[in-house]
Amino acid sequence: MVLLASIPIIALIICAAFVLTRALEANASFSQVKTLISNSLDQVGDLVHRLQTERGTTVLYLSTQGDPSILEKLEAAYHDTDEEIKNITHWRHINLSQPENEPFYYFETKETFQTHIHTYRQNLSNKYVDLPEPIPYYSEAIERIIEWFWEDFSKYETGKKWATLVAYQMIILGKEQLGVERALGGKFYAEGGYEDFNDYLSYVNRSIKGATFLEESILFSKDVEEFYNKNAFENNLFHEILNMRSEIIKNNYTFLEPSVSKGSHWFENMTDYIDLLLQIQYHLTDIINDQLEEEISSRQREVIFASLLVIITFAVSPFILQRIGRQTRQIEHIASSLNLKTMQLNEEKRRADKLLYQMLPYEIAESLKTSWDVAAEAFEEATIFFSDVVNFTNLCAECSPMQVSSINFIATFDRTDLGSTVPLQKV
């Protein structure tokens, strides 16, 4: 009995241990995901922003033929980028044995990436003839980092919280498009228009994509919409950018003169606008970090609950088994006593039947055992005659014990003449 009862208890212990194991694994896995996302939000996001600024400043510097004022801004951008690279504590390593990662060899370590950036800067400073175009050079690295953002975010899928991550991703993508638009717009003013139609198409493409990503971010997060509407129209910045965009779209380069000041003014306006999006990015970062902390707390509560379940199961199981064992012994004792009483009762029944069979014929005795009513039968000879007085039971119920004992049935039978014909023994 105890063995049978222990089976569900053992099953409960196994289930509790399984729940605890799953909770621990889920908590550990999510902690790793949280670390990846937090690093991406806090560190890598700032690195992308600095690289975008350095890219745009580099384009403006080349478009102005090395203007000293732009060079000063470029050197400041170099410094900011280097500081952000140093601040990264978790560098995303790549497997260079995979063919798709071969073009991104410079991401192998943080040092190789710094070397990659510094080499381009050095070639720019030395006016290297075959210097790659800055937009594709920087954009390749930036877009790869943004892909890593998405890979990390895709590991965390929990409804509305996941939607906030998508909104953050859209802001990052929108800033990237606006960053290229900033660089191409600065080139437009610094060179006096687009003589190459491909530059014009590229600008229009980037401008439209940037606006589209921003609209999608607003769709995924009301926080983005509220923050954007609150801060974007506080001054004339946005309207001034719209006017300059309209001028770039017209592309009347035959009537424009190269202007370093207008190129710098455009660059500063777009930088302020992108910095506004950076503030939205930081705002979403705080929201996502709060959501991650809430999720961590929830998973920790699950671990605590599972641990308590295991502890309670182990603590209660011996008590339950002890109670079952005690009740089992009591049941066995009662069953043994009942068996003994049954044997004694059967023995008494056997003795009573034996006595009854000695007093009555077998058929009469069996009839009396099964029913109180026995049909009258005639016998030519009888050893014993049983009779009853009509309503004697009711009569006795109405009399006192002394009255019942005073009724003299023997005398009544003596006055009959039965004894003269049949030998009669009265009992």
UniProtKB/TrEMBL annotation:
Keyword Nucleotide-binding assigned: yes
Domain called Guanylate cyclase: residue spans: 383-413
Swiss-Prot/TrEMBL GO biological process terms: intracellular signal transduction; receptor guanylyl cyclase signaling pathway
Annotated signal sequence range: 1-23
Transmembrane stretches, start-end: 303-321
PANTHER family: GUANYLATE CYCLASE 32E (PTHR11920:SF501), GUANYLYL CYCLASE (PTHR11920)
UniProt superkingdom: Eukaryota
Family annotation (Pfam families): Guanylate_cyc (PF00211), HNOBA (PF07701), NIT (PF08376)
GO (cellular component) term, any one: plasma membrane
InterPro entries documented for this protein: A/G_cyclase, Cyclic_nucleotide_synthase, HNOB_dom_associated, Nitrate/nitrite_sensing, Nucleotide_cyclase
Topological category with respect to the lipid bilayer: Single-pass type I membrane protein
Coiled coil region boundaries: none
This protein's name: guanylate cyclase
Keywords: cGMP biosynthesis, Lyase, Membrane, Nucleotide-binding, Receptor, Signal, Transmembrane, Transmembrane helix
Gene Ontology MF: a single term: peptide receptor activity
Annotated EC: 4.6.1.2
Gene3D superfamilies: 6.10.250.780, Nucleotide cyclase
Cellular localisation: Membrane
EC class (word): lyase
